[in-house]
Amino acid sequence: MFTGIVEELGEIVAIEHLGDASRFQVRGPVVTEGAKHGDSIAVNGVCLTVVDLIEDVEGTRFSADVMAETLDRSSLGALDVGSRVNLERPMALGGRLGGHIVQGHVDGTGAIVDRKLSEHWEIVKISLPAELSGYVVEKGSITVDGISLTVVDAGFDYFTVSLIPTTLALTTLGVKQAGDPVNLEVDVLAKYVERLLGRDNAPRGNGARSNGPQVDALRNNGLLDNGTQDKEATA
Questions:
Q1: Which of 28, 100, 123, 196 is most buried, taking the most CB atoms under 10 A from its CB?
Q2: Other CB atoms within 10 Å distance of the CB of residue 92
Q3: Measuring CA to CA, which residue among 131, 96, 139 is closest to residue 1?
Q4: Can you say where the Lumazine-binding repeats lie in this chain (predicted)?
């Protein structure tokens, strides 16, 4: 379990392609301190397992195997040697939950749409897959490349976040430009609420959906209308 508070900017130093998988070597002296084989480290929001630890004159790096499923469903497949990545170790039992509950299980990918610079922060607009739109709400939490962020504005196919100078300086979002892919993990609490309300796995957004008896009862009693049902049922 992670919190979405990035500990350091690491670097991809080697990629070995293994057919239906790849082995990454990632330099990260902070996250590898005290690490051992089998530990978990989040790389751009993807929970990976440490295979080996390698010491050299430039510091410690770790290797991790990335299966085809992960390469296909995340932006890790677009990384090259030299790419910078956000790194975070799992939260220690009893530690502070500085961001929000992050599993390291990517739900999909978006892309940087545009960036608007303000005097002390920057507004970044990110595309949102339709199947994830119901889980993203204004002032809710979302994980972007492993960074816990607060949603400023939530549209059907996009959302915006406001980045402070620290986030811009210490994470990959400080350098990503329009068109660059990002990993997205929505708030897991929204998924449990949806399940408890009886939703099935039909596509969200414009696709057909089936609502549970609880949601239907709320709507029939006038507590939900068709325009607000999606937001209220999945917030």
A1: 28
A2: 7
A3: 96
A4: 1-100, 101-197
